[in-house]
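Appendix B. One record, verbatim.
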Amino acid sequence: MTVDVDDPQGERSAEAAGRVPEGNLALPQPAPVTVPHDPGAVTVGDVSSWNIVLLVAATFGAGMAMIVPMAYSLAVRLDQLAPGRTEALGIVLAVGSAATLVLAPLTGILSDRLRSRWGRRRPFTVIGLLIGAVSVPVMAFAPTLGVLTIGWTLSTIGWGTAAASIGNWQADRLPPRQRGRVSGLTGVTMQVAPVVGIILVGFFRDQVLLVFALPAVVGVVLVVAFLSVVHDPDSRGMEFEGRLTLTGLLRSYGFNPRKAPDFAWNWLGRFIFFSGLTLTTSFTVFFVAQRLELRVPDVAGVLAIVSASSIVTATIGSLGGGWLSDRVGRRKPFIFAGAAVFAAGCAVSAFAHDLPTLMIGTLLNSLGIATFSAVAQALLLDVLPDREREAGRYMAIALFAQKIPGVFAPVLGGAVLAIGAGAENFTALYLLAAALASAGGLVITLSVRSVR
């Protein structure tokens, strides 16, 4: 197995018309290269139903292993190590997200150029699984906040790499007619996975090792099943020209928005939307504990009830939005609707002080998130530049739209919570999230031109 370190190629001139964001959002690009033969190029035929089932299952496992610690386990361990320090959770999450910002594009670029009998994506998925597994005992037995931060950083790097590799496989293999439906399936899976995970660890909320280990075990089993069966073409025949320098590698972390305007606008809209979403997800455990006057460990039962009730709305949003967007050939109306519904849910949650109102806000949130995420992912695959040769690179760049908010939003959220006197100001936090989500949906709806 060898990694080809040829200089990544520049984008082709974009044919799509449309306005371009002001200024250059990224770095200049390296000179183009040619690829005489690429056996890993996109497959035009439909992906089989069995492969889609395994893909969805792997997404479920990776999602559970990645999200449950962020949504519940870290807060429980933090409450043991530093009771009352809600803002520390934001710092822990931000450090992990910052690490993935550095590594995600690198693994995407290298996987685009990996010569291996096992294909381009599979080896990186395996590496991610191993790192994710190592993180479990580090987080579970962390004696200090510093060690907990290291453990979470390993976890988000490992599971983020595995999940990104699975996403790259989708970009390589899915034809346009399957993108909306499969994005809907994986979207609802990412909504359901943490719900099932929280219900599972809720039975063992006083056993810290199991709280961290069980989601990881599920993730390893389901991702390994995907890797064992689903084909990733032998990539040893790929050919490139040129060599990769440090300057070329740094340039590969960015793109020229003027050559890919719709990709750029979609990136910006997703960035704004996920900034709002991250504000709420980073502090969910502490939010529920405050509003319902519960101990932090006891929030698991409430989260399980509230989250389980949202499975139906998440399914409707993901499958309905993805399927309908394929059926009618339109993406943007569903993206706008999803952002608006999520914003409405945030507005309800901002003033919720009892379980029924919290549930209403959660149901609206889940419907909005699922609709936006599924259809925005399908739109991303529609506007992805240079899919045949650099899908991994651009999928990694697209991931920035979710990972950069993970760096600053938790810290910003801690500052917003400190507004005013007394208890944390979750009202201001959720209203800000609503405004950002609405703005993100509008950016995509009004600015992307090549997709309706």
